[in-house]
């Protein structure tokens, strides 16, 4: 019988499978850039969500205030010089701050301008008080209010 010699086939060390240090560093840099981009997206999304929440709350509060003003009888505040409840008055009209849970503080200002004895122009503006959300969350409504029935408490023409 013939003896067969067995030879082992070894590959040189330079051909071993695996990653080099440079390949690992490049992969870490690429991964870091991707994570920074995703983090930036999360920050922008959170900011936009805050603005949207305050904008929704501002629109709801401004709409409520306008409905209250439309139902307020002539000859009462704010159609005269008085104030109501926690409402204050300043040079820009009447103001009120509402704390909305989970949203923050919404500042509302309204101005009632007399056109004549039986008609008023009403402007209501609400906005969040956050540093980044103020003007971006603003809601403003305007309307005319008139009264023509003396039996319902309207002032007489020319009064």
Summed up, what is this model?
By secondary structure, the protein is an alpha+beta fold.
Give the SSE map:
Elements: H1 21-71, E1 88-90, E2 93-100, E3 104-116, E4 119-128, E5 139-146
Antiparallel strand pairs: 1-2, 2-3, 3-4, 4-5
Question: Describe it for me?
Answer:
This protein has one helix at residues 21-71, and strands at residues 88-90, 93-100, 104-116, 119-128, 139-146. It is of the alpha+beta class and 159 residues long. It has one domain. It has a 5-stranded antiparallel beta sheet with strand order 1-2-3-4-5. The longest helix is centred in the first third of the chain and has 51 residues, at 21-71. It is rod-shaped and about 125 Å long. It starts with 20 loop residues before the first helix and ends in a 13-residue tail after the last strand. Residues 81-86 have low confidence and may be disordered.
How many β strands by DSSP?
5
Q: Give the overall form.
A: rod-shaped
The helical percent reads: 25-40%
Radius of gyration based on Cα positions: 35 Å
- Mean pLDDT across the residues is 80
**Alpha-beta content class:** alpha+beta
* Alpha-carbon distance between the two ends: 134 Å
Strand order of the largest sheet: 1-2-3-4-5
Series of H and E elements? HEEEEE
Count of separate structural domains: 1
Number of helical elements: 1
Largest sheet: 5 strands, antiparallel
Low-confidence stretches: 81-86
* Estimated share of beta-strand residues: 25-35%
Supply database-style keywords.
alpha+beta, five-stranded antiparallel beta sheet
